[in-house]
Structures are given as C-alpha cells and as structure tokens.
Amino acid sequence: MTTPTLDITGDVCPMTFVKVKMGLQGIPPQETLTVRLKGEALKNVISSLKAEGHLVANVSREEGIFLLEVTKGG
Amino acid sequence: MSEADYKELKKGGMMRQAEAGLFSVRLHVVGGRLATPQLRAIREAADRFGQGEIHLTSRQGVEIPHIPQGALAALKEFLAPSGVGVGVCGPTVRTVTACQGCRVCPSGVIDSPELAVAVDRELYGKPVPHKFKVGISGCVNNCMKAEENDAGIKGWIDPRWEESACDFCGICEAVCPAKAILLSAGDGKLVIDPALCIGCGDCITSCPTGNMREKSRGYRIFAGGKFGRKPSLGKQILEVLRTKEEAMAAILAVLDFFREHGKPRERFGDTLQGTGFPALETFVKGRMGLP
Which of B37, B79, B167, B216 has the highest Cβ tally under 10 A? Predict the structure, then answer.
C-alpha cells in the first residue's frame, strides 16, 4: 500500500509545522502520511507530532534526509 | 538636600533625574512577573504622581520616572496595598531575573520563576561590596543570559538511552547540536558522551519511540559575569546540582565568598580575577559539604 508523501525538506519553521498539520488534516485517523524532512524540522516537527498524539514510526533515511511514517491519532 | 540624603534615597530605589527635583522610582519586580492589579496600580501611579510614563528596564524591572521629590512618600504609600514595593540600587543584591520556566515554555527544564522568588526572598536588597545581579534561565537556550550575571543559573537535563526496542533511526544523533551521540546501528550500540552533552534535551523531545529518556534534571551555576564598561562573561562552577535547595545554597555561598573577598565598589568578576575561580569553587563546595 502506498501512502501519501509530504516533502518539507525545502521549508523552514513554521511552514514545516503548518504543512504537516495540513497534510494530516487531509487524511482520516489511523491513516498514514509519509513525511520527508531534514535539519531543524526534525526536532520541532517530531516533538509537536508526539505532543498532538500522532504516532511516528518506521523512520528511514536517504543521506541527510529522514522519512517518517506518521499515523494520524484521534 | 545633601549628597548623603540622595545616596540614601538611591539605595531605596529612588534615583535622582538629570532634571533637578525629579526622581525615577524603581519598583520591586521578581522574574519579570507582575499581576494585573499590580500593573493597574503602576499605571494609576504614573498618571497621578508622574507624567503618565513608565520605563521598562534592561533587566525586567519597571521604573516610574518624573516623580517630584515631594511626592515620593505618597507614591510609595499608594503602591503598597497592591503588593508593589519600591526597588533598590547601590551596592545591593539587585533584581532577580527569570524566564517563564518549565510551567510555560516547552523548552523549559526548571521552574525558574519559582526559584527567582526564593532567591529574591532570601537576598533582594541585601548589602554586598558592589551591585550583584542574579539571572535564572530555565534551560540551556539561556534566554536570561546566565553568564552576564554576577551569579547565573541554567536548567539542565541529562538523557538516558533505553536499549530495548530502539530502532536506531538516527534522529537523536542528527538533532544533537553538540554531536554528543554516536550511533552504530550495526553493533546495536548508542553512546552519549557526557563531556560533550550540553543538557538541552533535544534528543529526548525528538525521539519517535521514546527510547531516549530523561535521566535527571538539575541546575548549573555560573559566577562572575557582568556588562557595563568592561564586560566579561561568567564561568561555570560546580557539577550539575540536583535540587532547588542545593542551587539556593550555592548562590548563598557565592555571595558569602564575595562579602569575604570583594573590595568596596569592586564587581564580583573583578574580585574573581584576583582570587581565581578555583578558590570560589573550593569555598562553595566546603559550604555545601560537596566532595
């Protein structure tokens, strides 16, 4: 099964956060969104996803870029 | 009015302005926090006794300028029922500054305003060889600039790695600003170098699986910082202290060292140039019963 992918490697805070939030709004709970991110966004995006009750799993990496599978909570 | 009288007024937070007969009145503020009834009283006082102007100082303080000498006592009396006290100046322990701390700030590690209130209660306005400033940062982001103060405190958090179920994704290693985490996924190993760790907790907040956890949190103490004409940065003393009471005891001991070794009108940083930092550290450790 392929999941929708969101690439925020070209964005900076707060757009990284906003795009992920909007991406998750577009899918139903328990569905998964793959997010490509790097640098400063790693800390900010992951900590806010955890705080909002989403599940981050199956992290993989391509060079300096991380791919997260985010399962929407709620 | 004699120079001695002006000096006495200044010590009590009433500073003579450039224009004769007028005073700027410094108020007692702790950790930059004021309740709305206090703010309303300050506004009313500035309108009634001053010229409707309020000055915010560089260290979270509040002053009401343009108060005629004859109105100083009445102003003090007007503010008292709202819990607004008049500040201090001269060779005393000054305003204790603090950030919003862990109750408000997501990065916060310690309750800096609570500690500021405790330090203030113990030390505010107490006589010392020269002005003495205390600043408290809730975490290593150091918004309150601990090293600019005669004594500074910073919140600190140590991480602990939980091996079971760690999937070695590498995010902790990538987010660590100090490159203190070394991951070798092949051998199933992760090492945190305590000598490099800066105690920020970024690895803990960003770990997706919760394998990077809080080991302990505490207080780092800094001494000897100042700004003014000849700025110098304070230096860290002691290992991380674990409790608020220990942090308080350390500040009290630092102040006693200053009283013992500081010459009149000599800032603490200059005193330490003479004594050296090791002498201070030995003194504080002795006081606290630390090894």
Answer: B79
H/E stretch holding B254 reads helix B244-261
Query: Contacts of residue B106 in chain A, CB cutoff 8 Å?
Result: 47
Could you say which of A42, A50, A59 has the minimum Cβ distance to residue B167? A59
Residue A46, chain B, CB below 8 Å: the answer is yes
The SS3 call for residue A6 is strand
Chain-chain contact of B171 with A59 (C-beta, under 8 angstroms): yes
Are B167 and B183 in contact by the 8 Å Cβ rule? The answer is no
Tokens of B236: 């860290």
DSSP character string of A16-69: HHHHHHHHHHTS-TT-EEEEEE-THHHHHHHHHHHHTT-EEEEEEEETTEEEEE
* Per-domain boundaries in chain B: 3-82, 93-291
Taking only the tens place, the pLDDT of each residue in B30-47 is 999 999 999 999 999 999
Query: Partners of B136 in the beta sheet?
Result: B98, B153
CATH topology of domain B93-291: Sulfite Reductase Hemoprotein; domain 1 (3.30.413)
Out of B167, B206, B209, name the one closest to residue A42 (CB): B206
pTM score, two decimals? 0.90
Structure tokens given for A50: 């955890």
Q: Is the pLDDT of residue B185 over 90?
A: no
Please count the CA atoms within 13 angstroms of the CA of B44 that sit on its side-chain side: 15
Helix pair B277-288, B268-275: axis angle to 10 deg? 100
The CA distances from residue B17 to B21, B64, B65, B66, B78, in Å, are: 8, 11, 8, 8, 21
Question: What is the CA B270 to chain-centroid distance, rounded?
Answer: 19
Cα-based torsion angle of the residue sequence B177, B181, B186, B189 in order, rounded to the nearest 10 degrees: -160
